[in-house]
């Protein structure tokens, strides 16, 4: 194969297996020179045979030398041309081999990419089938969910209708129960008020009246002071004195429990002006006179009782019962003169309303209104009627409302107290009381005014305990 001929292209498999070949080298100059010398040597015998001897030999020798030099020069020029052609062919072949190796690499890369493409395409087809199946499942699931939601909505509407019907029935029953309870209370009150003087009201009726009064006071405070802001620093000296007298711990209580604080203030005013009075409706002089008469008669009975023995002793053994009966009878007579009690009663009611408004308005951000005063007057009037009802009983009913001082601890007593905080009574034993919101009633003696050693809690004191 000459340098001017091209080498045929190797197949693709051969290019992939062998991407590089060893470089071609040019033939050595010595071989060409030897070939020229051999050519000249072969021509020499012919010249020697034709050239004449003597001078002819020298001329022939010079001719041979010149011919040999020309031949050498021609061969060298041919050699240079051959070498140039060989180098060009070598470079061309190297470029062709480099291009073929690059093409082999490109073909190999293409095959790899094609294989990766086929694999990716297969995965894509699988994923598309999975997505199509998932979409079908999702659509079917959506249909199932929508059908379930529709059925649940229908069930909800059905349950709502049934619930509304049941609640309407419950409200009707509650209204019937409330009506019946009102009728029962009315009958009890009517029986108690229309019966003979010797018949007394039951503890249940009195306790229910006291609880109703406490609930009314709580509702009044919540309705009128739920959004009010209390600031005791704004109070003047007179108001501070009243607060110190009624609720000694007013500073800490007003900042943390304003509703309970206002309940405590109004409750102490009711105890001070209504429940602590001898009999609301009569003048102070008349109340003082009746109290002195009762005290003197009790003292007189206690003096003469030890001197009587034998047959007459039984006439004086019931001095306590007799005094309680005298008090109940006397005050019952006064209750029948309701017209004569109106003036003093109205004075007491207005006093409580005025003091409440003065204290609350001076420490709050709202002023009293006619509706608020009217509802408060109703509460005070109810407390007046309850205090009279307690006083005409033969048994002694005492209003109990302890005063919480900052320098002493008042502990919770489950027998006479109830916590309005909603905690379990078992966890309140030994707990310190924070404030008293409404008084309680303690009964001494029986329905006949005798056996003064008996004590019974008719209505428990409402208190707020300190947090645990």
Structure characterization notes:
The protein is mainly alpha-helical. The chain has 2 domains: 115 residues, no CATH class; 262 residues, no CATH class. Helices cover 67% and strands 6% of the residues. The strands form 2 sheets. Strands 1-4-5 form a 3-stranded antiparallel beta sheet, covered by helices on one side. Strands 2-6-3 form a 3-stranded mixed beta sheet. Helix 7 runs antiparallel to helix 10. The chain is rod-shaped. The N terminus is likely disordered.
Highlighted features:
468 residues, 2 domains, three-stranded mixed beta sheet
Short description:
It is built from 11 helices and 6 strands. The chain is mostly helical and 468 residues long. The protein has 2 domains: 115 residues, no CATH class; 262 residues, no CATH class.
Number of helices: 11
Give the termini separation: 113 Å
- Tell me the number of strands: 6
Count of structural domains = 2
Region (Disordered): 1-58
Coiled coil: 156-183
Keywords: Coiled coil
Organism: Diplocarpon coronariae
Furnish the topology, listing elements before pairings.
Blueprint: H1 12-17, H2 29-50, H3 55-194, H4 203-225, H5 237-246, H6 250-256, H7 258-275, H8 284-304, H9 319-336, H10 338-363, H11 370-391, E1 396-400, E2 417-419, E3 433-438, E4 440-444, E5 455-459, E6 461-465
Parallel strand pairs: 2-6
Antiparallel strand pairs: 1-4, 3-6, 4-5
Helix pairs in contact: 2-3, 4-7, 4-11, 6-7, 7-10, 8-9, 10-11
């Amino acid at each position: 194969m000459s340098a001017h001929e091209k080498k045929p292209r190797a197949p693709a498999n051969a290019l992939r297996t062998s991407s590089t070949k060893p470089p071609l080298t040019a033939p050595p100059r010595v071989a060409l020179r030897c070939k020229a010398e051999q050519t000249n040597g072969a021509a020499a015998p012919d010249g020697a045979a034709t050239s004449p001897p003597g001078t002819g030999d020298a001329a022939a020798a010079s001719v041979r030398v010149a011919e040999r030099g020309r031949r050498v020069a021609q061969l060298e020029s041919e050699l240079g041309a051959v070498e140039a052609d060989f180098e060009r062919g070598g470079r061309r072949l190297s470029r062709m081999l480099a291009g073929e190796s690059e093409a082999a690499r490109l073909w190999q890369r293409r095959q790899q990419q094609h294989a990766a493409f086929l694999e990716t395409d297969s995965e894509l087809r699988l994923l598309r089938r999975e997505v199509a199946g998932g979409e079908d499942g999702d659509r079917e699931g959506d249909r199932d969910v929508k059908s379930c939601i529709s059925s649940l909505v229908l069930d909800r509407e059905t349950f709502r209708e049934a619930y509304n019907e049941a609640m309407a029935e419950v409200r009707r029953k509650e209204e019937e129960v409330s009506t019946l309870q009102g009728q029962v209370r009315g009958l009890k009150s009517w029986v108690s008020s229309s019966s003979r003087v010797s018949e007394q009201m039951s503890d249940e009726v009195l306790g229910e009246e006291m609880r109703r009064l406490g609930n009314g006071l709580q509702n009044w405070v919540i309705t009128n002071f739920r959004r009010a802001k209390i600031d005791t620093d704004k109070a003047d000296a007179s108001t501070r004195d009243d607060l110190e007298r009624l609720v000694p711990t007013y500073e800490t209580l007003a900042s943390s429990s304003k509703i309970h604080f206002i309940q405590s203030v109004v409750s102490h005013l009711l105890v001070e002006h209504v429940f602590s009075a001898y009999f609301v409706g009569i003048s102070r002089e008349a109340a003082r006179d009746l109290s002195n008469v009762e005290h003197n008669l009790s003292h007189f009975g206690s003096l003469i009782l030890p001197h009587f023995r034998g047959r007459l002793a039984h006439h004086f053994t019931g001095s306590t019962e007799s005094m309680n009966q005298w008090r109940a009878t006397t005050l019952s007579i006064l209750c029948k003169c309701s017209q004569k009690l109106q003036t003093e009663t109205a004075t007491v009611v207005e006093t409580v309303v005025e003091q409440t408004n003065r204290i609350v308005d001076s420490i709050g951000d709202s002023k009293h209104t006619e509706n608020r005063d009217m509802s408060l007057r109703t509460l005070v009037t109810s407390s007046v009627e309850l205090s009279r009802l307690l006083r005409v009983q033969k048994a002694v009913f005492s209003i109990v409302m302890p005063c919480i001082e900052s320098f002493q601890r008042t502990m919770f007593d489950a027998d006479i107290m109830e916590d309005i905080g909603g905690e379990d009574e078992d966890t309140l034993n030994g707990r310190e009381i924070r404030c008293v919101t409404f008084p309680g009633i303690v009964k001494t003696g029986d329905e006949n005014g005798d056996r003064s050693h008996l004590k019974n809690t008719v209505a428990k004191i409402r208190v707020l305990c300190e947090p645990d």
